[in-house]
UniProtKB/TrEMBL annotation:
It is an enzyme of class 3 (hydrolase). The keyword 4Fe-4S does not apply. NCBIfam families: PRK06061.1 (NF004717). It comes from Streptomyces violaceus (Streptomyces venezuelae). This is Amidase.
Length: 474
């Protein structure tokens, strides 16, 4: 088993259970890959070298006695907005943060499945932007082109998986923060139904728009990690019925009615779909039609959905800023967003929360005519490192909307979406498309994604030249 790059999550779990490799050996190789690429990719905020090796040895003892768990001994990473006991949770911010005492619920469930948490990945400050840069940690770079961002805010997790440092990772998605970096690094990214993967110790994150999700190279691996992380804390306010995402992989979805939605949803400033992205998304639509699905252009009735997003997003920022131990160190754009959030945190926020039920009924009605929506994940390929870092707040918002106008409505709705790789621009930059469905539709979206994957085999493509540690065999 040659491990220049991490093999897939499912393959790693199988090899461990079969005794073909030890968890200790896998974690040692993972740590070597991380160390070899930290200077070039900068995917990790925290590397848990000593703790991860100890956890790997404990997993090996369990494996030796015949214990079997879905991810027993498998190294994975989590985004640095998730609590890992004994580690700080800086969430992209500057300053020295104290270690937390307990795992967040999603991390607890990964551990219960046997996973070894090798580290916490970089994210922009409070996950606000579709790039992963900042004074706290520098710039996280895209393995496909280190001059470009991997996206954000789960950019560290995406870079780590795309480069083969780890087989899969958790991220979070508040306005596309799993799907956007998945699109820009040629990965599968699952944004699940709100509450599917707990955000505890917060019952709701950013007023319910942010959920935890998964990034992997294949649909099966993204689904396996989703199943392992899924479940609720006793005090979670959102508790959707359980689904088995892994069981959906490879299951025939039947002939579906698919809406190809190319028009950007409501935006306050102009957004235009770049021709090179449009071409790749339309090619996916044509592939779906060739598979027997009925595909036609149609746009969900979004209306003024953007007016419900801003109060929830900015009120969420205000909550985080109010808890920040070093507010003076925060980005000026963060402080400005928090001020707006405090202004909108009363009646506008309550109105925005009430509007969700209306949006569910109106946009839910669209799914009486269609089963799935296919849309671009972003309007543009990944921007260059630094392109958005020093902009003003208004200029940042304009640039974000221009590049990423498609993902955030599903955060308002709380419904599932899956990014799938759509190919590359002429310059070799990855772009993606998202499959979107109504509440609890993860199994259907996984079926369609897996059907496309079987045809396109996107997991066979790796960044070139590979940004990895020296070859090692186990």
């Amino acid at each position: 088993m040659t491990l220049d790059r991490a093999p897939g999550l499912s393959e790693t779990a199988r090899a461990l259970a079969a005794g073909e490799v030890t968890s200790r050996a896998l974690v040692e190789l993972t740590l070597a890959r991380i160390e070899a690429t930290q200077g070039s990719l900068n995917a990790f905020r925290i590397v848990r070298a000593e703790a991860a090796l100890a956890e790997a040895e404990a997993a090996d003892r369990e494996l030796a006695t015949g214990v079997r768990k879905p991810l027993l001994g498998v190294p994975v990473a989590v985004k640095d907005d998730m609590d890992v006991a004994g580690e700080p949770t800086a969430f992209g911010c500057c300053g020295e943060f104290p270690p937390v005492t307990e795992d967040g619920e999603a991390v607890r469930r990964l551990r219960a499945a046997g996973a070894v948490i090798v580290g916490k990945t970089n994210t922009c400050e409070f996950g606000q932007w579709p790039f992963t840069e900042g004074p706290a940690f520098g710039a996280t770079r895209n393995p496909w082109s280190t001059d470009h961002t991997p996206g954000g805010s789960s950019g560290g997790s995406a870079a780590a998986v795309a480069a083969g440092l780890v087989p899969a990772a958790l991220g979070s998605d508040g306005a596309g923060s799993v799907r956007i970096p998945a699109a820009w690094t040629h990965l599968v990214g699952i944004k699940p139904q709100r509450g599917r993967v707990s955000t505890w110790p917060r019952g709701e994150s950013f007023q319910g728009i942010t959920v935890n999700g998964t990034l992997a190279r294949t649909v099966a691996d993204a689904a396996l990690l989703l199943d392992a992380a899924s479940g609720n804390h006793a005090q979670d306010p959102h508790r959707p019925p359980a689904v088995d995402a892994s069981a959906a992989v490879g299951r025939d979805p039947g002939r579906l009615r698919i809406a190809l939605s190319l028009k950007p949803p409501f935006t306050a400033v102009p957004a235009r779909l770049r021709p090179e992205v449009r071409t790749r998304v339309v090619e996916l639509a044509e592939r779906l039609a060739a598979l027997g699905h009925t595909v036609e252009e149609a746009d969900p009735p979004y209306g003024q959905i953007g007016l419900t997003f801003v109060p929830r997003a900015t009120a969420g920022i205000a909550e985080r800023v109010g808890e920040a131990p070093f507010p003076a160190l925060l980005d000026r754009r963060t402080r400005d967003a928090a001020r707006l959030g405090r202004l909108l945190g009363g009646a506008p926020l309550r109105a925005a929360r009430r509007a969700e039920a209306v949006l569910h009924r109106r946009i839910g009605g669209f799914f009486t005519s269609y089963d799935v929506v296919l849309a671009p994940t972003t309007a543009a390929p990944p921007p260059r490192i630094g392109a958005l870092l020093e902009l003003s707040g208004f200029a940042t918002d304009r640039a974000m909307i221009a590049a990423c106008p498609y993902a955030w409505p599903w955060n308002v709705l709380g419904w599932p979406g899956v990014n799938v790789p759509a190919g590359f621009t002429a310059d070799g930059l990855p772009v993606g498309a998202q499959l979107l469905g109504p509440a609890d539709s993860e199994p259907l979206l996984v079926q369609v994604a897996a059907q496309l994957e079987a045809e396109l085999r996107w997991f066979e493509k790796w960044p070139s030249p590979p940004v990895t540690a020296p070859s090692a065999a186990v």
